[in-house]
Amino acid sequence: MPRRSMSRVLAGIPGGPQVVPYAGHGPRAGHAAPPAGVAVPPLTGALTRQWQPPFPLDWSRTLAVHRRGRGDPAYAVDAYGAAWRTSLTPDGPATMRVHTVPARGEGHAVPARGDRHAVPRGEPASTALGGAAGDAVPCGEDGRLTVCASAWGPGAAWLLGTLPGLLGAADDPSGFEPVHPLLQEMSRRHHALRIGRSDRVFEALIPAVLEQKVVGAEAKRAWRLLLLRFGDRAPGPAPSGMRVCPPPRVWVRIPSWEWHRAGVELVRARTIIGAARVAERLEEITAMTPGEADRRLRTLSGIGPWTSAEIRQRAIGDPDALSVGDYHLPSIVGWALIRQKVDDAGMCELLAPYAGHRYRAAWLLELSGQGPPRHGPRNAPRDYRRI
Question: Which among 34, 122, 232, 321 could bridge 312 via Cys, Cβ 3.0 to 4.6 Å?
């Protein structure tokens, strides 16, 4: 049972709602921390980078929005708690491993002997790129974390260059001023949560389209089957089964029966194929404002407000990209804020005071665990492969 004082703080009235820690395994949940006292072992043959965030960072939840279920071939978490992620960068495929260590004083990266990517003497380890994994000494102030990343493949340097942005360096939550007691409490609890950006639009588009009008299990299964069938093996010593998202030309050539085997009907397949044909133009939205990016995305057939928001959340880190049209989100927002189920219009009205940060507010409400009671079975996944 919750303490009475906490209940009053959250709801503003006696007997108000309790904040329930989010215990799901969805894209907002992050992943488990490594066992206490277990260090992530270094791996050889990688480009490395260490970055000292100038702000508190919940790196696990910030990064895990790019994970499409536990069986995602493009995202994995190993036994040490390190996150592995693959990406098809402008320079080619790459694999990146990310973990954190406690910062302990100032230091400099020590280049590997004879490594052509070694760090120049005097360059701080927090911004250095190069050397062999495990050669650098974390730097920074006591009490902070140092993010350590290793990457393999032709696109390794590009992927490491995006590490700060991926973990929310460009995110500015200063304008977010929650007024509802529940949001105030969740903002306090998750003050280290950031909205990052991958700068890879087409990679964010494909899973978003696969999630259109189906339950999550269907979309995750389709993503997994398509990557395992058409994706290239992940560069470097990645966990078994990891794959890199295929290039647009491969998606265009996937035959209809392969889409069917993955459980994807013709409408979603056509949307992905159409986007693949203009993939280069889509990548241009990373340099646009969120409004311009939304308009560019919605010129594509099959891309509506919900899909555009899901893409912008991950590709450009848009804190206002509210997923209007989501099956569950309006009910979660309505129940958390006013103890009533609402529709999309009601959700937008409730989140209007947080314009510019509506996605951030909705994410915090998801993490609160507040949602309407369930009175029936969940929607059963459909299997288009049997049609």
Answer: 321
